[in-house]
Structures are given as structure tokens and as C-alpha cells.
Amino acid sequence: xxxxxxxxxxxxxxxxxxxxxxxxxxxxxxxxxxxxxxxxxxxxxxxxxxxxxxxxxxxxxxxxxxxxxxxxxxxxxxxxxxxxxxxxxxxxxxxxxxxxxxxxxxxxxxxxxxxxxxxxxxxxxxxxxxxxxxxxxxxxxxxxxxxxxxxxxxxxxxxxxxxxxxxxxxxxxxxxxxxxxxxxxxxxxxxxxxxxxxxxxxxxxxxxxxxxxxxxxxxxxxxxxxxxxxxxxxxxxxxxxxxxxxxxxxxxxxxxxxxxxxxxxxxxxxxxxxxxxxxxxxxxxxxxxxxxxxxxxxxxxxxxxxxxxxxxxxxxxxxxxxxxxxxxxxxxxxxxxxxxxxxxxxxxxxxxxxxxxxxxxxxxxxxxxxxxxxxxxxxxxxxxxxxxxx
Length: 390
Prior knowledge:
Layout: E1 2-7, H1 14-25, E2 28-31, H2 32-42, H3 45-56, H4 62-75, E3 82-86, H5 92-104, E4 111-116, H6 119-133, H7 140-154, H8 156-164, E5 167-171, H9 176-193, E6 198-201, H10 208-218, E7 222-225, H11 226-236, H12 239-250, H13 256-268, E8 276-279, H14 285-296, E9 304-309, H15 312-324, H16 335-359, E10 362-366, H17 371-389
Parallel strand pairs: 1-3, 1-4, 2-3, 4-5, 6-8, 6-9, 7-8, 9-10
């Protein structure tokens, strides 16, 4: 998810540039000014409250702003890659409010881009706009008041985001194309720093491990398999390995405390990573919450959830054959253990799919076919997701 706030004084061109950026990056456009003007036009209860404030060029109360922003966030979450905020936040109080609203959605503001335009240019632009659009908030008196409000109340927001390290000043003087290209350049740099995280779901024997390794290499991501990591701990005879061994040999799920420790350790080992492919975790709805928490701790979130779809009988056949091949794991050799693993998966997976179905678009990929055929399907799925995200 990509979240941008486009900042700058009245008349800087935020509305015009916002439309271009919304289309380019598939973002939901959230403009407090537009929303409030629509409410005034409808003569709604909210519109009546803010009508006089807007006429004078004043700032609407934070209680009203929170209400409309939260409503917009809630109703614009599907089929978009994030949000572009125009006209919000306008004060440091609102900056804190936005932090809280995005935290509630398990995301954050990735950059604050400020269009820098000299005052004389702003006055000329707004005067011309007043004549063309007949906007009541663009009279000479109101223009002067709005610019003073920006200097006194809104400019301190810059310091808030400078301290967070995600503030960027952009020259707002020049052709429409030049300003747009400058904004895109900054945004593309931000996108390169945002992790792309994938959860690879599917029953035991669906091929997650084989495909996960190849996909991580293909897309320059870090592959994290809790099963593989725990088997290494068992082989080394560590305390963690000893604790996990009794669960793994029975085909049971390892306690969450062990899984958290090993996943967090692996994430910390790769600070330079562009993102992660998680295989074998989460296996329960509790673990789904845990993974969201682990990523949120690092100001990140899931980008894609893939369901490698394989029928139960096919999974059983694959696991049985793997056990007979001499390359099977300890839990592939015994038929009862294989059945136990598949039953555990069936019982617990539905809640995991339900959890991700509400928060993310789970993409089903057919897991039947040759290794190369399945790999091509998975690559195409990730390429499409990257295209939407980037």
C-alpha cells in the first residue's frame, strides 16, 4: 500500500497534480476540500455546519475532519493501492490524527510531498481561478486570509514530517508535466523502499517450498520457511530445536512463541531486503495476527496472499510418494502422520483464509501441473501485484 500526502499552500496546484498521481498509481483520492464542498452543495447537515467556515477561508474543526476522513478511508479500500491525501493534514494535530487512522488500517503515510510556490505566483493563480470557477473561497480577502492561515497553522506540519524523515520539497513552478515528473521521481524512490511481502498458502504437499525458493530468487525477495528454519535448529541440537522437535515429528503446529522468535530473527538478519515470501506461516488465525504485528513493527504490511490450490487427495499422493522416495521428511513416512497434518490444515486454514479474505485479495493459483507450469502462473500473479503496487 502506498499512502501520500500532497502538501503546499492554496493555489500550489495540489488538486491538478493529485488527479494525475491518482491515475498513475491507482490511489483513492481524499480531498477534504472537495468533500466539504459537496456537502455544502447538498445542503446536508454537515454542509450547513461548514458553509460559513469555508466562506471565510477558515479551518473546519478536527472532530468533523476525523469523521469525513474515516468514512472515506472505510469506503475506498477496495481495488486501490493506497491513498492520496489533498488538504489533509493541515495542522500538527491533524498529522497525529492521520497517524492514528492509518495505524488502525495497519499502514502508514509513506511520504509528504510539498509543492513549493512563491507567494506572488499563488495570488496570481488563485485570482485567475476565482474569475474562471467563481469559487467563494477565492476572493482577494479570503485569499489573503488563507495564505496567512497556511503560514501560521499549516506550515508547522512540515517539521512534523521532517522529523519522521518522510518530507520532500518539490518545486511547484514550471509546466504541468515538469512538476508531475518531479513528484513521480520522489514517489518512485519511496516505492523502492517499501517491502513487498507475500504469504504463500496451501496444504502440505502443494509445492510451496519448491516454488517459494524459486520465486524469492526471481523477484529478489527473502524466503522465510518456518519449517526449514526449525529443521535446521533440530539438526544443530539447539534449545529451540529440541522444543520444536516433538511437535514437528507428530505433524503438529509448533507453539507460537517459537515461531515468532525464529521469524523475527530471520527478518532482522535481512535489513536490506526488498520484502519477504513467507511459507508455512501463518497456519492459524492467531499466527495471521502475529505476522501482521511483526510487519507493522517494521512499518510494513502484507502485499499479496497466494493460495496454491491443490486437492486433498493430490496432496496425500505427493506426500506419500515423497516419503517413499527416500527424500521425505520424518513426518512424510508415516501415513497416519500425513493424514493428521492434512486434517490439521483443513481445520485451521478456513479461519486463516477468512481473515485474509477480509483484509486482502487472496489470489488462487492452480497448483496442478508441472513444476514449470505452476511456477509461470505464480510469477504472473506476483508480476501483476507488483505492477499494481509500483
